[in-house]
Write a structure and sequence with these properties.
Length: 210
């Protein structure tokens, strides 16, 4: 399952080539869903609903479903895996652990977070976003294998976010960190390199059969 349709078209093709079926959706605050539901703390309810639907499809092996999310979707991928053990693999494509740095975030990113939460005032959105987007107490609950990709040169999400996730998941038995030194936000400048790696990892963990 991929969170955020536009970010994953090419990644979907890479997964399909490796024998993985794909399902992409926009949750609260994303894409057209924004008009029905703004960013909210219970995003996992929506990914679990998609899982419910996938489990009913005869062509899908319900015991081998993974999740991948990019940027804010990376936060939601970990969040969803923490709340639903049916996910058997998780790719966090851009590590966002919390928004403790929200007050120091530069525009337009700061205004963008406020907008998807339904706020016109970025300053007023701060308390809600900081409390809503925080993996503390959640990341530790993830039981499936996790692959975390983050560009070391990312200026939107600071490297300290990777440190927070490392600490929270220090005891996890199958945790892979991929931090390219020359990568920018979500390693957009290294797409040709990192996307096949993520697809390969998913195919291996989910035992894809081409």
């Amino acid at each position: 399952m991929a969170i955020g349709e536009r970010a994953h078209r090419r990644t979907q093709q890479l997964c399909l080539a490796r024998g993985l079926a794909t399902c992409t959706f926009d949750g609260p605050g994303q894409g057209e869903t924004y008009f029905q539901a703004k960013l909210r703390p219970d995003f996992h309810r929506f990914t679990s609903a998609v899982l419910d639907w996938l489990e009913k499809r005869p062509e899908i092996d319900a015991d081998r479903i993974g999740i991948i999310g990019r940027s804010l979707g990376g936060f939601y991928a970990i969040h969803s895996a923490a709340h639903d053990p049916r996910f058997k693999a998780c790719v966090c494509w851009g590590v966002l652990f919390d928004l403790s740095y929200y007050d120091q975030m530069r525009d337009p990113a700061r205004r963008g977070f406020a907008f998807v939460a339904g706020y016109d005032d970025a300053e007023k959105a701060g308390p809600y976003l900081k409390s809503t987007l925080d993996l503390s107490g959640q990341a530790e609950r993830v039981r499936c294998p996790v692959y975390a990709l983050h560009g070391a040169q990312d200026v939107l999400i600071p490297a300290t976010q990777v440190d927070r996730l490392r600490k929270a998941m220090a005891a996890h038995p199958d945790m892979t960190f991929d931090i390219p030194e020359d990568g920018n936000h979500c390693c957009h400048n290294l797409y040709a390199v990192v996307r096949p790696r993520m697809a390969d990892w998913l195919a291996e963990r989910l035992d894809a059969r081409t």
